[in-house]
Structures are given as structure tokens and as C-alpha cells.
Backbone:
């Protein structure tokens, strides 16, 4: 009965990611979309928190949102898997509920 | 036609008057309550300011809808979960919040606001069928 959390705000601008990670349960998935993808860059100040949370939850970023911002999958922290829109649908189907962190 | 009742949680994370989220959330809750689902509300992060007492919006020319939260009990919305850590981070305590109550068949004026820890809030979220975020 796990949850897919989506986050769409940059963690440098809002606390959505931080709040999301503070309410995640083991086995949940976190998908970074829209501006949130900028938080997952290797060496960024949120990479450590994502890696820590990634020990209990799985971390994803939406590929088209990375590409739109000039970010490459290999620029992302190792804890983050890049998915396409089909992968987004799969994640939504695999979890009991979806919670948006706006 | 009997249908299984689903648990709906409305999550409020934004302060009330800087954007339309808080008012829209309250309106959707009131509309949704008519569909006889199990509805509860969560207030965390800046969302706790939605329940602050003594709001006066005359000076900013915006609608003060904070009084409307007190009507939720009449719509059988009886659980307003407020996150303790979010209050503390903002220098707020229970005394700074509106008095919101509901009646049951047996009892009157039961407090609707329940202060919960972040971990309890995570459990509440994980027990829902549907989560609507504002």
C-alpha cells in the first residue's frame, strides 16, 4: 500500500521536496517533475538528502523535464533513475495512491 | 445504490492570502462533503496559517474566509489534522488557532483540530484512498 509522491517545485525555491521527504514511508517512490528536477543534479546541495532518502524509497526524475532544462541523465545523482512518460504511468499504477507536493 | 466509502484527505501547505490555494481547497472540501465520502483535512508547512485566529483581511482587500472552517462540522468534516512541527517552526501554538468544533449524536462542541507529529501525519497520509493537494 505504498505511495507515489510527485514533486514539481525546485527545492532551491520551495520546501516541497523537503516536506515530501519528511513524510515518505519506506517503499514509497518519489518522482521529480517540472522544476523539481533541478534538485537532483550531481553535486547539488540536495543530492545528499535524496541519496539518504533513496535508501528507503526509490527516486525518479522525469526525462523530458531534464532535457527541457539542459540536464542529461548522467548529470543526475546516482540514486535517481530517469523515467519517461510511460514510466510515470507505470509508477502511478504500481502504487496505491499518488500524492502531489506542490 | 450503496458504494464503498473512500477516505479523502485534503492536504493544505500554503498560507491563506498570498495565493488562491487555501480558498479553493476549502471550496472543494465543502463541495466534496456533499458526496458522503470520509473527508479529513491536513494542515502542514505554511498551511497551518490557514487556521490562525484573528485574521483581518480588510487592509489587503481580500475575502476573510477563515470563519468558514467553523462550518465544516455541519458537513460532517470532523478531523482537521495540524502538524506540530510546522506550528513550532513558525512560532505558533494551539492557542493561536481557531476554535473549530463539531457535534455528534451524543455530544456537542467536540474539538475538530487534532495536533499530530510529522510521523503521525505521514501515517495518516499513508492510510488514505485519495489525496488532494493544495
Residues:
Amino acid at each position: 500500500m505504498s505511495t507515489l509522491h510527485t514533486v514539481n517545485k525546485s527545492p532551491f525555491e520551495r520546501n516541497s521536496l523537503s516536506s515530501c521527504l519528511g513524510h515518505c514511508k519506506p517503499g514509497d517512490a518519489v518522482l521529480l517533475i517540472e522544476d523539481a528536477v533541478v534538485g537532483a543534479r550531481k553535486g547539488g546541495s540536495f543530492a545528499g538528502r535524496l541519496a539518504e532518502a533513496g535508501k528507503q524509497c526509490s527516486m525518479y526524475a522525469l526525462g523530458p523535464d531534464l532535457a527541457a532544462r539542459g540536464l542529461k541523465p548522467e548529470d543526475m545523482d546516482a540514486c535517481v533513475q530517469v523515467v519517461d512518460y510511460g514510466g510515470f504511468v507505470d509508477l502511478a499504477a504500481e502504487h496505491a495512491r499518488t500524492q502531489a507536493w506542490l | 445504490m450503496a458504494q464503498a466509502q473512500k477516505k479523502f484527505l485534503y492536504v493544505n501547505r500554503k498560507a491563506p492570502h498570498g495565493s488562491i490555494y487555501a480558498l479553493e481547497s476549502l471550496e472543494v472540501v465543502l463541495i466534496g462533503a456533499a458526496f458522503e465520502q470520509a473527508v479529513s483535512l491536513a494542515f502542514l508547512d505554511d498551511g497551518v496559517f490557514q487556521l490562525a485566529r484573528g485574521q483581518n483581511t480588510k487592509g489587503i482587500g481580500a475575502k476573510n474566509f477563515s470563519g468558514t472552517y467553523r462550518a465544516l462540522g455541519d458537513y460532517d468534516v470532523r478531523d482537521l489534522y495540524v502538524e506540530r512541527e510546522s506550528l513550532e517552526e513558525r512560532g505558533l501554538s494551539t492557542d493561536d488557532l481557531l476554535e473549530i468544533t463539531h457535534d455528534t449524536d451524543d455530544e456537542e462542541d467536540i474539538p475538530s483540530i487534532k495536533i499530530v507529529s510529522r510521523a503521525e501525519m505521514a501515517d495518516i497520509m499513508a492510510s488514505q484512498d485519495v489525496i488532494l493537494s493544495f
User: Anything to note?
Assistant: The helical segments of chain A are 16-23, 47-53, 63-68, 85-94. Chain A touches chain B through 15 residues (CB under 8 Å). Chain A has one domain: 3-101. Residues 29 and 58 of chain A are 5 Å apart (CA to CA).
